[in-house]
Amino acid sequence: MKDKSFPALSNLLGSYFHQDWVVEFPDDERVLAAIQESEPREQIAEACSEISSIVASNRSDASVSELLHGDLGCYFEPNSRDMTSKEWLEFVGRRLAGK
Known about the structure:
Helices cover 65% and strands 0% of the residues. It is built from six helices and no strands. It has helices at residues 7-16, 21-24, 28-38, 41-56, 61-71, 85-96. Helix 4 (41-56) packs antiparallel against helix 6 (85-96).
């Protein structure tokens, strides 16, 4: 059963980083730019808040990876950027926040 604790993040990552995302976008940076260009600011702010909650938790990287792939439906592989799942989520949060 999927975790419903992170609805905004699930909506954004699951919708944009679906299993065929590489057909639509050249890289994860372009996906994040598309999210910023297309999604309501409130949705992005809520997703950033959810990211902060995940990053601040005591979850192991394996747990964060399972959350990304299993619960959030995100098909991006953070190790393709030489990042852990937690590091990549931090990167996503900064990027979506415009930092």
